[in-house]
Structure formats: structure tokens, C-alpha cells
Amino acid sequence: MSKINNFLKTLRTSIGSTQKYGLVSGNQSGDLDSVICAITYAYFSHQVDPQRPLLPFLNFARADLSARKDIELVFLSNGLDANQLYYVDDLEHLSPNELVLVDHNSPQGKIAELELEVTGIIDHHEDEGLFLNSEPRIIEKTGSCSTLVAKYWLEKGATLDSEVVRLLLAPLVIDTRNLTSRMETQDYEMAKKYASFIPAQDTTTWFTQLQEAKEDISSLTAREILTKDYKFFEFGVGSAEVEKNVGFSSVVKPFEWLLEHHTDFKDQMKKYLSDLSLDILVVMTSFEKNGNFCRQIVFIAKDESDKLLIKLAKDSKLDKELDLEVEKTTESGLTIYNQKNIKASRKQVVPALKQALESL
């Protein structure tokens, strides 16, 4: 049995006793980086302090794992038993006493409703200024949050092995486009450490396999596509005491593909907005076309007042910061924007829209 599977089985035994335990949770989008951060943080923590069990929590429903084919590939390639992990479905049966956040720094989704004490944060998104007394509280710019998780625990006395390195390498490779983009000093340092454990690792082949798996959404429904990489936020508007529910869905295919394969995609976006009680839904696409990396963005509003808010936010900040231009308006009235600032991922778009709405 693998070391990590053995560790996960040990955890299940420990929570069957009277021992207290916590959760280490990735963000609501449940992407590869978040999932691997949750697993490896819990694994390293157990190495250093086995008397303080932390359960790796994947912040989405168990059934939604099948839509994340890159994560399934990593699990399969490493022999990791996904049934030993914890999902949103399991919350009703769990009684944790603390929460560690990785790849985000404010609780998201169902787990936020538990109002657990946040005792640790490791993240590479914008600092929301919360839980200032948590330990660790590391929020730094890196290509992959997994870099920060590994670095922190190595400094605490944890040790690497080839099995955990194979897990850690996956999000680093996919988030930095095979170690060529958004690499920071700490990413380079950890990549060098990983290479000593698996020197023969062909990262180019691994990156290609992961990217193909991540982009394989051909079997998904429109709703599954919107849910696959989704995050929810509440944004204030101006000086008024008004909160807007804003959802962000990231998609790995262009809108041309989405509208071709799902002719009712605009209606499905509106239904998704309504079902989730959103005021604004932002759908961001990222893809390659003729060898060039591209981004598109679409805004869906609940009503005319929210349409006006989007227009004001675009005029005041987003058009300039994201370098937006109208790419196409479909016959159904869907406006698709070309985002020429391709460096701005959701990590940058979320705070940009938040600040734009707050400044109105």
C-alpha cells in the first residue's frame, strides 16, 4: 500500500475514536492545485505532529470529481484512493474543531457555514485581511500554492519522498505551463528539490497529459462545465449597504466551442445564475488558438440594474485593466469580450471587479 493511502486509512481510524480533528480545505473551485495542497498539507502535518490529525477536504461534491479529469489522472497515476478523501457530502457526518485553508484565505462554500476556527492559511491569492492570528498565515505570490505548502512543511521538519513529490509536481507543472510561466523564486527552488527525487521525470509529457485531461469537457453538460471550476463571492457596491452575489466560472474552451456543442449555453448560464441566486455571473474562458494563448470573458446579469452595474464597472476599471474589446455579439444578444490582458487570470479579475463595484 502507498504511504499516502496508508496515511488516509490511519486518519479514518483516528476520527472513529474520540480524538479531535480538523479539516484542511482547498478552495471552492476544487482545481488540481487546491486538491493537492489539501492532501499534502494533511500528509506533512501528520509527519510532524501525528497527534493533531487534519483531514484533507475537497471543497466540492463527491460526484463532481468525475468532471475533473486532470485530478482523476493524477490519482490514477499515483494509485491514490479517492474514496479515502473527504468531500462536501461528508460534512453532515463530520465534527471538526478547526479549519486550515489552502489556496484561499477566506472560507468558501458549504464549509463556511460551519464557522470553524481558522487556525492556518497558506495561499497565493489576494490577501483578504482575515484571521490575522492564524499560524501559519502565509500569503505570497507563487505559480502554484503547492510550492508554499511544501516549503512550509519542509522547514518544519517534514520530509519529501518520491510519492508525495509526484503529487506536488502535478499542480506546479499545470499552473506554470510546464515551468515556463508565472514561476517565482520559490517555485524554482521547489522544482529543483523535486528533480532530485524523480530526475527522470519528463515534465513535458506529463504537462501534455494533464492539459489534455483538464481540457476534456466533451462529455460534460453545460451545467457541469459551469460548475467544474466555480467560485462564489459577495461584493459590496459603493457606499450603499448593498451586497451582490457574484459567481465566477472558468472554462477551458472558447465560447465558439461552447455555443457549438451547447446551443442553449446562454440560457444555461442564465439558469445557472438563477439557480444559485446570483446577481452577476462571470464566465471566463482560456484556450490556445493558432499557437497563441487567449482569454474571453462574458458577464451575465440578473436584471437591468445589475447590467448597469456591470457597465459602470467596465467603464471605470475593467476595460482598462483587463484590456477588453468586444469580440462578438451573437444573434441571441450574448456579448463576448476578448480579454487582451492574458496575464489576468481569475486571481486578478476577482479583485478587479470587487474594487470596481466598491468604488461606484
From TrEMBL:
Its cofactor is Mn(2+). GO terms for molecular function: exopolyphosphatase activity; metal ion binding. Keywords: Hydrolase, Manganese, Metal-binding. InterPro entries: DDH_dom, DHH_sf, DHHA2, DHHA2_dom_sf. GO terms for cellular component: cytoplasm. Gene3D superfamilies: DHHA2 domain, inorganic pyrophosphatase (n-terminal core). Residues 207-357 form the DHHA2 domain. Coiled coil: none annotated. This is CYFA0S12e02498g1_1. The lineage of its organism: Eukaryota, Fungi, Dikarya, Ascomycota, Saccharomycotina.
